[in-house]
Amino acid sequence: DVVMTQSPLSLPVTLGQPASISCRSSQSLVHGDGNTYLSWFQQRPGQSPRRLFYMLSNRDSGVPDRFSGSGSGTDFTLKISRVEAEDVGVYYCMQGTHWPQTFGQGTKLEIK
Amino acid sequence: EVQLLESGGGLVQPGGSLRLSCVASGFTFTRQAMSWVRQAPGKGLECVSTITGSGAGTYYAESVKGRFTISRDNSRDTVYLQLSSLRAEDTAVYYCAKNAGMDDWGQGTTVTVSS
After folding, report:
1. In 3-state terms, what secondary structure has residue A87?
2. Cβ of B102 and A49 within 8 Å?
3. Exposed, middle or buried, A25 (CB in 10 Å: 0-12/13-18/19+)?
4. Which of A39, A43, A103 sits opposite B46 (nearest CB)?
5. B103 backbone φψ class: left, alpha, beta (φ>0; ψ -120 to 50)
């Protein structure tokens, strides 16, 4: 299975400041159809996960535009331009190019 | 509105079995792959199995291969996960998620494996 590695695993951020999470895959996530099936999920405390982005940078409905996804090949990034209190939770990357899908370990974002 | 409602979790002894169900609504079920994802207490997410829309294709994580079986009944808009030969490390909240990209999730059902 493809191994997804996130960093950092813990991310204390001051309200209003930017945040960035890195995700790396053990092999290229470029599918034979030319797409890169890399998604980002947010899991707030006590809730089910919620998808934020699919295919690298396509934002899901209702996701604020302060969130952005980018990357290519084996190296990916989730950025928050200005962290708000509601962003507290754990963020996961997931690859869907090679089944079964695999997740990163998660990055816990907290407010300083 | 998409809804996914899991059920079937509970307390089971090591070596035992359970069948989880996920009833879907709000979308054309037969067109979507469905996945089961689990989360052990205080841990991250693990996709344990995915099944294609027709049911012809199934995929499993190495950790559950040979012990878990995914299936679906498209006439009932339901996906199942049969858990067998359960171990303590299978203790987790089990979520079903819509399609391989997991764009919608249920609320989860808890499986506890303990004697």
Report:
1. helix
2. yes
3. buried
4. A103
5. alpha
Helices (H), B1-115: none
Which amino acid would we find at residue B5?
Answer: L
pLDDT, one tens digit per residue, over B94-105 is 999 998 899 999
Pairs of CB atoms within 8 A across A/B: 60
Look at A106 and B45 and tell me if their CB atoms are within 8 Å. Answer: yes
Cross-chain residue pair B101–A99, CB shorter than 8 Å: no
Q: How many CB atoms lie within 10 A of CB A99?
A: 22
Report how far residue B41's alpha carbon sits from residue B33's, in angstroms, rounded to the nearest whole number. 26
| Nearest CA-CA partner of A9 in A29, A27, A23, A28 | A23
Render pLDDT for B46-104 as a digit per residue (tens, 0 to 9).
999 999 999 999 999 999 999 999 999 999 999 999 999 999 999 999 999 998 899 99
Query: Do B29 and B45 meet the contact criterion of CB atoms below 8 Å apart?
Result: no
Residues B81, B71: Cα–Cα separation, whole Å: 7
Token digits of residue A58: 């396509």
CA distance A107 to B63: 23
